[in-house]
Every structure is written in structure tokens, then in C-alpha cells.
Write a structure and sequence with these properties.
It comes from Glycomyces algeriensis. The chain crosses the membrane at residues 60-83. This is DUF6286 domain-containing protein. The chain folds into two domains: 13-82, no CATH class; 91-170, Alpha-Beta Plaits, CATH 3.30.70. The protein is 46% helix and 17% strand. The protein contains five helices and five strands, in the order αααββαββαβ. It has helices spanning 13-37, 46-53, 61-82, 102-114, 144-155; strands spanning 90-91, 99-100, 119-127, 130-137, 163-170. 13% of the residues are buried. The strands form two sheets. The protein has a three-stranded mixed β-sheet with strand order 3-4-5. A two-stranded antiparallel ribbon has the order 1-2. It is of the alpha+beta class.
């Protein structure tokens, strides 16, 4: 049995919430209209008032702006509906179904780089499949970059296939 990949919330989730809120507001307006038309409330219908204000022979600028905005929002909803959800974890190598959090990969890389000889401090950042390791080196340790690459590569071996880049800066005396 194949287990689904861990995924983030789909891109269409927020547009769906917005659309649900808009439909809820529209239902309130229709409910007020029905109550006013049936004489259940003493107020005029909001829809009748709105449609009466639209009864103008000259097109208004605000109607054009609202139409363009509605078209752009609709296009955004359509694009978001077809975007797949991104993976939330990285697949680890091996026979099992093991997934690793990007934050764990960052922590492991930072720890491995921090333990490399000549490194005072290290910080890692993972973006998609690119791991960037920033290290602060002790003065006079230019050769530490190769040690950092080796230490991070050894620590992450078998976890995920990543492109590792090291930025090293020598500490001032």
C-alpha cells in the first residue's frame, strides 16, 4: 500500500474560504430581500435599493473597476484551484516510507557544520532542494569550507538529495 506524500494545505484553500464567506454574505442579502418582500420586516429590500441605484443610462467608473477586480479575483481563484499542494517534508532514502521535516534537515546541517573544525557558529536554511549553510569561521581557517561540506554531507547522507552551498565568513579579530 502506497502512502500519500505529506503535503501542505492546497493553494485553493484560501480562495475557498473567501468564496464561502462571500456566498454567506450573499445568502444574508437574499434572506433580507425575501423578508422585506414578504412583509416580515418593515425595511426596504437592500437588493431593490441597490438595483435602483444602478438604473442609470451612463456607465459608472466604479462599475468598470469592480468588474475588472471581479475578473482578476476569479482568475486568481481559477489558477489556485489547479495548483497542486507542495510537499511539506522531504523523502528519505531507504526501503521504508520515511519523510523528514525541512526544519530537521536545517538543524542537522547546522549542528554538523558547527562541529566542523574552525567553525564558531553555523546556521542553515533550506529552500526547496537547496540547502544554504552560513558559517562563521575562526580567524585563519580558510580551509574549513571543505570540512563543512564534508561534515554536512556525512550527516545528511541517506536523508535527502540536496544541493548544498556553504557561505563562510571569517570572524574579525
Amino acid at each position: 500500500m502506497k502512502v500519500r506524500d505529506p503535503r501542505r494545505t492546497p493553494a485553493a484553500a484560501w480562495p475557498a474560504v473567501i468564496a464561502a464567506l462571500l456566498l454567506g454574505g450573499f445568502a444574508v442579502v437574499l434572506g433580507q430581500h425575501a423578508a422585506a418582500e414578504l412583509g416580515w420586516i418593515g425595511a426596504d429590500s437592500w437588493l431593490r435599493t441597490a438595483f435602483a441605484s444602478l438604473d442609470d443610462a451612463q456607465p459608472s467608473v466604479w462599475v468598470l473597476i469592480a468588474g475588472i477586480a471581479a475578473a482578476l479575483i476569479g482568475l486568481w481563484f481559477l489558477i489556485a484551484a489547479f495548483l497542486p499542494a507542495r510537499r511539506s517534508h522531504l523523502p528519505a532514502d531507504g526501503p521504508g516510507d520515511l519523510w523528514v521535516s525541512p526544519r530537521v534537515v536545517e538543524a542537522l546541517a547546522s549542528d554538523a557544520a558547527g562541529r566542523a573544525p574552525g567553525v564558531l557558529h553555523a546556521h542553515s536554511e533550506l529552500r526547496r532542494r537547496r540547502l544554504k549553510v552560513k558559517a562563521l569561521l575562526a580567524p585563519g581557517n580558510e580551509a574549513a569550507v571543505a570540512d563543512i561540506m564534508e561534515a554536512v554531507g556525512d550527516r545528511l547522507d541517506g536523508l535527502a538529495e540536496l544541493e548544498v552551498a556553504v557561505q563562510a565568513k571569517e570572524a574579525s579579530r
